[in-house]
């Protein structure tokens, strides 16, 4: 059952890959930012996709100079499009590299705080939901590689992390790194009320992995993992 499901997702992933960028943009523009998922009437928890960073906060920078915020968004938008094939309309914490900050947020720190608070409110207002936050890792040396899944302290997060970790291990043997409880210093993941995971998809400091993470093909595989992990977690 799960094997068929995975094959189906990968087929859908290839289909997305074959669709012109214009069609993907159409799917995305028709997706209301805060739409509650229950498109298929099953009443399952909403999927919240959180592309980390954005706006004044580019996050980590890859060895080729690409900002983490862009890669996080690329993967999240592919997951959003792929979810659409399953009748799932994710709640997106952002759909652009631009972020509208309140007028009184003058410094980068104030902007980051305002953005984090806005995401916290959006996530916790969604009610019954599963949060998947998308990030990229970076280390001081080029050796470390592979993804890592961090889980929030909320009930149900560990199971979501295990499900996603198992799927990540299917797309690259480097991804077989287990799951870890999120650190107390990550504000958002410690202030959500729903199950949530933060995926560090790979290391931007590893040249080969950075190339993968910047490729549409690997981004689609990650998108399939995200959507598949969500569906398996709420089914
Ligand atoms: Zn990050």
Q: What can you see in these coordinates?
A:
- The protein has a single domain (2-234), classed as Zn-dependent exopeptidases (Aminopeptidase), CATH 3.40.630.
- The model is unreliable at 19-40 (pLDDT under 50).
- Helix content is 43%, strand content 14%.
- Helix 1 packs antiparallel against helix 7 and helix 3 (68-84) packs across helix 7 (216-234).
- The longest helix is centred in the last third of the chain and has 19 residues, at 216-234.
- The two termini are 12 Å apart.
- With 235 residues, it is α/β, with parallel strands linked by helices.
- The radius of gyration is 17 Å and the shape is globular.
- The chain has a six-stranded mixed beta sheet.
- Zinc ion binds at residues 52-53, 59, 68, 135.
As residue ranges, the low-confidence spans are 19-40
H and E string: HHEHEHEEHEEHH
**Bound ligand species:** zinc ion
The mean pLDDT is: 88
Strand content: 5-15%
Q: Determine and state the CATH class.
A: Alpha Beta
Number of strands: 6
**At the fourth CATH level, what is the homologous superfamily?**
Zn-dependent exopeptidases
